[in-house]
Amino acid sequence: MIDVVNLTKRYRGDAVVEALTFSVKPGTVTGFLGPNGSGKTTTARMILGLTSPDAGRATVGGRRYRDLDFPLREIGALLNPGAVNPARTAIEHLRWLAAANRLPAARAELVIGMVGLDAAAGRKVAGFSLGMRQRLGIAAALIGDPATLLLDEPINGLDPEGIRWIRTFMQGLADEGRTVFVSSHLMSEMALTAGELVVIGRGRLIAAESVKSFVARVDSTVRVRSPQLDDLEVALAETGATVWRSGEALEVVGMPIEHVGSVAGRIGAVLYELSSQHASLEDAFMRLTGELCEYTAEAVA
Amino acid sequence: MTGPVGSSFLMEWHKLRPLHKTSRTVIVAVLLAVSVSAAVAAAMAAGADSMTSLQRLRFDSVGTSLQGVNAAVLAVAAFGVLTVTREYSTGMIATTFLAQPSRLRVLAAKLGTHSAVALVSGALACVAAFAVGQALLGAGGLGVGWDAADLPRALGAGAIYLVLICAWGVAIGALTRSSSSAIIWLATLLVVAPVVIQILPESVVHAAGRWLPSQIGMHAMATRPDPHSFGAWAGLAVLAGYVVVTLAAGAWRMARTDP
Fold first, then answer.
1. In the sheet that A242-246 helps form, which strands lie side by side, from edge to edge?
2. Helix-strand-coil percent breakdown of chain A, rounded to 5?
3. Cβ-Cβ contacts under 8 Å, B11 against chain A
């Protein structure tokens, strides 16, 4: 459980994160979406006590990160995968983390097995690929068997097999009843994993809701194919819908599929196809963050 | 040891245990102390025949055998510096703060564990330097042996001197967050300043020289008093004062400025 209330961070007067409020609930994967530079990492660092907010607060299970005596037991975090001493071996890295939070040393062996790095346990991190470092970072996040996980861009540097692995892995953690908060700038990836979304743009909250309702915010398109395409186009335009040609079909925006069917019936048009084209998460995201960016640009001008 | 404070110490101890670059500076320090002491003692023993009886009377056999300790200070200081600055340069400090969010606790743990290592290796360096130095001085009839007056004080003060230097390294590391600037500061204070002060008028040397860490260390390990110095303990107290002030500044920066 992560609660963020009115969280604000400014650097030299510029707001990087502005009055952000949302909460992340257990039992599902929550995607944290935003374009690069939208304040995702700053928000994550404020939740983790690494960056001090200028206003507001962030809590994990009701307590501020800095007030946790053994934080790794409450929340596991994956931040910059480079944050490891390269001269240390993977297992040494996990052992000092275990020692830091009074966890049995056996946890280090256990989590390194969970991420499939057993064979590389005794090797120095300096020789690790980015994908291996990501896995080590995830092992570190799991060391305290935490109820909450915060993963910042976990699929960076992973190969397709690794991406599939982490997808199932995160899903499994959420199914166990954990809170899983995953930031990404890849909408397509979140569409596959996340049930809930927190979307930000320019440090402000755009949406905090389920993937389904977020996508539904964007008008879906209705596609119609008919031999009487010209008649249909006129009839639909007269009823106020936005219509345009797309090859041998019409794309209709701003009108429910039932109404499109009724209009076709009224003029007696033969239909070859009447289908609803659902907006993808990516469409919804681009549409909503695009609006925000335009709004900000105008405000500046 | 079961609370967060104890586990912070355990964390730093675990990081120290594998003997990597940082820990090697300790070994370098001990080797430097012993070899420089040996070189100084050998040189003194070689010139022993030409010494007058007054010179022999005034000769500080204990202090001479411990001269090498001052050669080890930079390595000991680097040991303290690197525990902080290496974490900032690799970004690992974020991982450390994730494991232990109280930054002052982290600093205290680094200070405690590294001071403990500095104490053990500092004591070892002093005893080894004395043993080797005496063996060589003995050849010139300048040895005093293990029952020399003030020897326990000289050895103890030498070890404490190195602990304070290590703690100063940790403090300057926390203040600068950069290995190179911290080492430059320490090299200036510990090595360059004593050389520069030599070219100043004698009155200045006598007045200002006693405040230099290297002079404090040298007089802490001497068994012949010098009127232009603090005594052994007063000198170490002055050095401890430098450490406390720097540490307060370093702790303030560590707690206030995010990594």
1. A242-246, A249-253, A221-225, A273-277
2. 40, 30, 30
3. 96-97, 99-100
Task: Check if the beta carbon of residue B58 is closer than 8 Å to that of residue B224.
Answer: yes
Domain residue extents for chain B:
4-256
Interface list for A 82-121 with B (CB within 8 A): 82-89, 92, 95-97, 99-102
Question: Burial code of A103-121, b = ≥16 C-beta within 10 A, e = fewer?
Answer: beeebbbbbbeebebeebb
| Widest Cα–Cα separation across chain A | 76
- Give the nearest chain A residue to B102 (CA atoms): A66
Q: State residue A295's pLDDT score.
A: 47
Per-residue pLDDT at A293 exceeds 60: no
Note which residues in 44-73 of chain A have CB less than 8 A from chain B: 45, 48-52, 65-72
Pairing of strands A75-78, A148-152: parallel
Taking the Cβ of residue A140 and every Cβ of chain B, the question of whether any pair is shorter than 8 Å is answered with yes
Q: Which two tokens stand for residue A24?
A: 């992340």
Into which CATH architecture does domain A221-277 fall? 2-Layer Sandwich (3.30)
| Candidate CATH numbers 3.40.50.300, 2.30.30.40, 3.40.366.10, 3.40.50.1950; the one for domain A2-212 | 3.40.50.300
CB contact under 8 A, B4 and A83: no
Q: Which of residues 17-56 of B touch A (CB under 8 A)?
A: 18, 20-21
Give per-residue pLDDT as tens, B200-237.
888 888 888 899 999 999 999 998 888 888 888 999 99
- Find, in chain A, the residue whose alpha carbon is nearest to that of B258: A51
Instruction: Specify the pairing of strand A179-184 against strand A242-246.
Output: unpaired
Contact yes or no for B5/A97 (Cβ under 8 A):
no
